[in-house]
Amino acid sequence: MVSIKDVAAYAGVSDKTVSRVVNREASVKAATREKVEDAIKELGYVPNQAARLMRSNRSGVVGIMTDVVARTANSVELIGGIQDRLSEAGKGVLIANTGGTEDGEQAVWRTFQEHRLDGVLYATMFHQHVTLAVEPPPLPTVLVNCSAPDKPDLPSVVPDDFEGGYVAARYLAQEGHKRIAYITLNPQIVAAKLRGAAFQQALEEAGVPINGDWILAGYEGPVGAETMRAFRVASELLALPDDERPTAIMCGNDEIALQVISAAHAARVTVPDDVAVVGFDDFKMISTNVVPNLTTVGLPYYDIGKRAADKLLRLLGGETIEIRSDKMACPLVVRDSA
Amino acid sequence: MVSIKDVAAYAGVSDKTVSRVVNREASVKAATREKVEDAIKELGYVPNQAARLMRSNRSGVVGIMTDVVARTANSVELIGGIQDRLSEAGKGVLIANTGGTEDGEQAVWRTFQEHRLDGVLYATMFHQHVTLAVEPPPLPTVLVNCSAPDKPDLPSVVPDDFEGGYVAARYLAQEGHKRIAYITLNPQIVAAKLRGAAFQQALEEAGVPINGDWILAGYEGPVGAETMRAFRVASELLALPDDERPTAIMCGNDEIALQVISAAHAARVTVPDDVAVVGFDDFKMISTNVVPNLTTVGLPYYDIGKRAADKLLRLLGGETIEIRSDKMACPLVVRDSA
DNA sequence: TAAATAAATGACAACGTCGACATTTTTTCT
DNA sequence: AGAAAAAATGTCGACGTTGTCATTTATTTA
Fold it and tell me: What is the model's pLDDT at position B319?
């Protein structure tokens, strides 16, 4: 591998002068610079970051640690936001996943330390509470899409699920719906709880009665291994006589909403005229392809990623972070299903 | 930052002995090893990979270069497969995206070289032909989901779109369908061409007549900025009288299939009894949530990623790669829509 | 024109680790 | 016990780069 010394010899200058050219330092005569640049091009020299790092002890790389492999549509947005912000700042990105186990997480922390990463974005695929496998984190860390209730000084960025649920429920109430059902995510999930509470509060404030029997789980089974049952649940709701049937169904996510719309079709109930459907997450693959297009609450994962990256960068820059936990608004995207 | 010398001083041994302990070399007395390990734990020492790399000039990290940010459902599977195989081999993964521009790609190649990556997986989000921005690639490279027709010696792994299209079309023919329509992807895309050719061949072989008017584009506009028109196209097909209407519709992907099913519902045409629908890609989010569940051709992106990673590892291990271009089979996933 | 100042370049050490080789300690053998 | 062999540990330098400081060269000033 060609090194700075090879270039120096080839150009007939000292290695330090080559270093100056490479790092665009001011005091190099134009003629010298040119000579060196030619040599660099000629020999195909590329500086060795590892050697640089050895002197500076700063790698210029940020690590993303995720629980499950980055395999869901959410995570993809999230990572996109992170990447965009970090590459603006000239930082590299190293992605590693823990497999969701404590051992795995410890191994990743170690790798990150070995590579002297500048900082870490600790991201989960679902909004949840977490406990780090290494306390305190050995590198500057920002939590993404999760929070650590027992470590309130760890910065975090999460979606405001309560606000999202509130906005959706209030919208349905404002549209005049009086009989509103809610098919939820797996109830153990943080997001499900927050959205459920928001649903209740919004309807109470709007004076819309809440029917406990119409708050139904769209999934069954343990978190991570649940099976879908939204189609069945929705079919039962929609089989009720016209004047007893819900006129609106709020859904824990867009996949549930797709099943609800499928159930409505099967039951010959028209969306949105007979029953309005509101989704959650705005998975474009579903929301913009099903007809009618889905009215849904967008989860701003791209922005969450971007914000988290920004927060980490400011942390690394030595800024004091005032607001520890950012909650990002979830906008209602009105399309045709409600 | 605590270095090997700090540990050595603390444990009262030489730095080389610490090095031996860290690298699990045999010839260290148990008592010494223990002393050193205590010191390591006490001081929180973590070896510096950069310094190691400086001696060995091998980073143990493989780069993934993608065109568009890893943001589609495909890419997520792909990267998952790559990651799983590489972490088996103890390699790290560095993901970077080129933004689809030549400058961006050059910058990424440079970064990869600066970090002395062991090798590169060059992945695209859609199966396509590519020309590298740097020829020949300065690091060992395997193309993933794309191929370079003018550089036949570059190893690549791609889905066998022809075979997938063939299997799907033959299945419909075997089920006895005589009137089969095909709503395609953007016709410029490689996958669309291969699948289209397979569609024609399969029907010819089965003796099913091909109606040119029934091969219709589901998208319009340039690649990357197309708009969906599958719902409209399908609605027109399904508005035909019962005995002139297609009895089966093959779709370029699952998003198209979802629109076709939506159109069928709107037209009060039953799936699969009146019209069978076959998708492509097996996007689980759609295929397992829409009712009826989608019969579709799976794109083995996870396996493609895994295979590509494996291929690169063998390349790095000095093995000679006999088969330059791997085509991965696309299995038909039979569910309820056909 | 010589001295004074500024600009350009170079010599050398240091970063953290490990390979090559040297030295010391322990064990085995006669 | 003393010599020989084996095991354990240490010394030193090199990897590629850049910071510090010294030196050379060019430019300005009196």
Answer: 86
Distance CA(B45)–CA(B2), nearest Å, equals 6
pTM of the model: 0.85
Nucleotides of C under 7 A from a protein CB: 7-12, 14-20
Strands A180-184 and A141-147: unpaired
pLDDT at A72: 63
| Residues of chain B contacting A59 with CB distance shorter than 8 Å | 50
Query: Exposed/middle/buried for B159, CB within 10 Å: 0-12, 13-18, 19+?
Result: buried
Question: Does the C-beta of A31 come within 7 A of strand C?
Answer: yes
Which pLDDT does position B73 carry in this prediction? 66
pLDDT at B71 over 60: no
| DSSP string for residues in A165-211 | HHHHHHHHHHTT--SEEEEES-TTSHHHHHHHHHHHHHHHHHT----
Q: Which one-letter amino acid corresponds to residue A298? A: G
Residue A92: its chain B contacts at CB < 8 A?
Answer: 94, 96, 111, 115
Q: For chain A, which ranges sit under pLDDT 50? A: none
Burial class (CB in 10 A: 0-12, 13-18, 19+), B28: middle
Nearest to B283 among A57, A83, A285 (CB): A285
Chain B residue at shortest CA distance from A68: B80
